[in-house]
Each structure stands twice: as C-alpha cells, then as structure tokens.
User: Fold NADPH-dependent FMN reductase from Dendrosporobacter quercicolus.
Amino acid sequence: MRIIVLKGSPKGQVSVTMQYVAFIQKKYPETSFEIIDIAQQIKHIEKNEAVFDDIIRKVKAADAVLWAFPLYIFLVHGNYKRFIELVNERKAIPAFSGKPAAVLTTSIRFFDHTAHNYLRGICDDWDMKFYAGYSADMNDLFKEAERERLLQFVRGFFQAVQQDEAAAREYFPLTHNVEYVPVDEPTKVETLGRKVVILTDAAEEEGQASLNRMLTHLTAVFNGQAQVVHLRALTIKGGCLGCLRCGYDNTCSYDGKDDFINFYHNTLKTADVLIFAGAIRDRYLSSIWKTFFDRTFFNTHIPSFAGKQIGFLISGPLRQLPNLRQIFTAYTEWQQANLVGIVTDEEAGDPGKVDRLLTQLAGRSIEYASSHYIKPPTFLGLGGHKIFRDEIWGNIRFPFIADHRYYKNHGIYDFPQKDYSVRLRNLLMSILVKLPFCAQRNL
Assistant:
C-alpha cells in the first residue's frame, strides 16, 4: 500500500507533526510512505511547474493521501493553503478525485476543529473519500495510551483504504452567483478622530470586481478618512517559519527584513477600527490573507488588538461556510476585540441593501470605538482563553516566555482555585448541608 503524506509544516522534517508520521512509519514498515514537503518548499513548487506536476503524478499513483500538518491560527499554514490554491488553479483536482484521505494534526487543540472542517471541505470539493481526522496534542507521543490510540486510528484508515470503503460527503459544493453593484450614493460617516484602517488583498482581476466595489463604497462612506492598505503592496518576504524566536520577547526572525513588523506596530496596532476585506477562496480567504494571519504570530498568544473594533468585508458564499464565520468570530474574541459586523455581497440581490449594511458597519464601528464598547465573550473566546491560560502556565511556558510574563502581569492566570472567597463559600455551604436541620430541609 502506497501512502502519500503531504507535509504542511514550514519546519520540514524536524516538525512535531513529522515525528508522529515517523512513528507511524516505524510501526508499519511494510507500508510505503511517500513524504512530500509542501509548506517548506512552496515557492519552489509554485515557480517550477515540473516539480508541481511530479507531486501530482505521485498523488495519482498513491493508494491514499494523508494530510499532515500543525495548526497555524485556526487553519493550515499559509504555504499549505497556497498549494491547495495551486491544485485548483492548475486544474489538478482529478489526481485527488476518488482517493481515500485522512487528516493528522498536532496542536494544543485551540480551534483544531476549524482546521479539520476546512480540510474535510476541501476533500469533499475534490471528490476524495474522507476517512477521518486525528487531532494529536504535541506531547501525546510521550504517552503509551495516546500512542495506542493513534495506531488505532491508523489501522482504521488503512483498513478503509484496503477495503475500498465508501465515504459520506459532509459539505455541499459552494455556489455564488451574485455581484455587488452600488445603488445609492454613499452616506457619509464622520470618524470623529478615530483611526480607521481597511486592510485588503483585493486585486484588479476576474472575481474581484464585487469586493473592489464594496471596498470603494465603504471608503467613501468613511468620507475619505479611512486608510486603505493593500496586502499585495507590502513587502512580505515569506510566511511564518515556526522557529519560535518570538517566544522569548516577541521578536520575529523577519524583523528588519520586510515591511510586516513595522506595519503591524505602526499602522494596525495604532488603529481604533480595523476592517478586513477579502474574497473567499476554497472555503477560506486567499493564501495572502493566511500568510498575514500567520505572520501576526510574532505576538504569540498575546492579544495585540485588545479593545479595537473589527469588521469583515467579504465577497463570496459566507452563508455556506459557518466554519469560516466561526473563525472570524473566534479570532476577534481571542484578540479581546469587538466584532462590529460582517458584510458580504450575498445580499446584492436586494438592490441597495449592501449599501445600507456598509453604512451601518461604518457608523457602528465609530460609535463603539467612541464608547469603548466590547461585547462579552462567548464560549469561543472564553474557551480559547482557558486553553491558552492553562497551556502557558504548564506545558508550553517554555518556549513562550513572553506569554508567561504577559499573562502574569495582566491577570490572565485567573485560575478558579485562586478565588479564596469562592473557596470559603463552598467550604461553609458544604458544612451547612451536613447539619441535621439543613439535611432535613433538603429532603
């Protein structure tokens, strides 16, 4: 049996994910594993079509595909995302069609499900036979029970391949056949001295006209007082390297080598309102946007947009992608920011509605920025907070020393056992319910 492993770590063979793959290889020496370094070699793959074509030939010859990658900001690494785009752009999907597939990820399980949902959607779009996903903690290989659980997953996957098991589809194909055209003149919204930055990857190309029109209209609503920044105009040397240099003091390995760090500090972090504008590409935004989010990890697990107002301007079928909407919401809550709203061109069938929604987005963002309004977090923000709190305190304090300092100084280590008033109350109540009178009343 021939398994092709599409490797999604920018760190290559030394990544934690590849240690899990190496473990599987050791336990199944009779199985042929073809490991292809996608994320680390994406520039070479993109520039050299012969290399890309060779990968596609190997996929076509394989019996099954294993997507193996570490999580990067709710999803796959930007370079891995770019490979998925290339498969679509170069019409190489037939090589994947009908192939059994599985997903193996490593992380601290912070929104691992959104990455799994994304890859499951890609497999459905490519007509692959998706078996299952396996989410491993980074330290699971040190635990005998977890090693056995991983092998159970692998045995099931290999059995499904050998028996040519059928696979149920989870997601419908995406459809989007509306385009935004403004109807009304922009209703002006004064920024009242608040700094508004609109960040976009919009380009003058087919499929981007709707996004560009929304962008132009929203800029006019802000009465020319919003700063529009195009990601394509920034010099970004590459994606996150996964080197964890930032773990000590939030200094990035790219510092001084491209525009990103200074732009982030001097433009984004000084803004009161941030609007992210992009078009949906294969169940997410573009790989350019993904690289942007990956590169923000020099802040590690520290909320760098706390207190800001964030909105999204999206062209594409967002209503068909609850996974992506959840990513937008969770990202904002993780940042301790406020999600003002999401406007898409899906409403373009109702003339003038998108115009009104854009005006409302602008007006509310300024209103909320002026009143410093941040809505309370939902499970998405609170659950993420607790995962980071516990992991930084424990398993990953090293190498994330900067996180530990920040969490300690900003009261993020809010463990419930440290609330002595609650502990005292619980002690007293537990004593009271044991008294005969209280016990009888409870009966």
